[in-house]
Amino acid sequence: MTNKLCLLWQNVMTRQWYHIGYLILKDSGMYVFKYDETEKHRGLKEALLNGYRLHPTFPEIGKEYESKFLFSAFLRRLPDRNRKDYAPIFTELGITQDSSDFDLLTITGGKLNSDSYEFVKPIQFNDNEFSLEFYLRGWRHYNDSSDALVNGDELRLEVDADNQHDPNAVKVVKNETKVIGFVPAFYSEFLREVIENQLPYTVVDCEYDENAPSLFKVKIKMSGNIDEALLKKYERDVFVTI
Prior knowledge:
By secondary structure, this protein is an alpha+beta fold.
């Protein structure tokens, strides 16, 4: 099975995310990076018009860059496995000594404070069904040390129509009333359309780890059904099925 991650770039002024390329790990163990040249909303072309500059390690659009190892530009984005203060975090996230660099990049997203890149999993499409998983954003802003998720809590998604930062913002609500955080921005437009079109979805699983850092405290897995119009738009417009 080929593994694929979407590389995102954020315009820090507008807070808008753009899908600029793919990192692929082939069955052979070869890594491939390529820019996504597809004409689409919030793609590479729009990113370039909104301040993005090609990564200096990958200066050519249209070229497939290959490496037997994870590219050094991405390897530097991984936390040091030898740091003792990271060991408990790795354990909680399911990272072991056997985990590959690609596994580590998939789980952590490769985020750095020094730039605006992030790796995310694409939404999976299978006929008219979709599935995705993400770590909840904003837990520490909406919850205190006494808050937690327990078996029996019901979660639903709700469009945050009054959000001044993101018109597509989707909040996660616990037990009908309490906002506990938000869907990551890059998935929010898709899920907003799912909600507004009243398409069925289910929160399949929610993993809560009280000891994890805020960014990794709540992992949500969900699935649902979409109509032909939405399937056609997002199969080619933002995400690609693996």
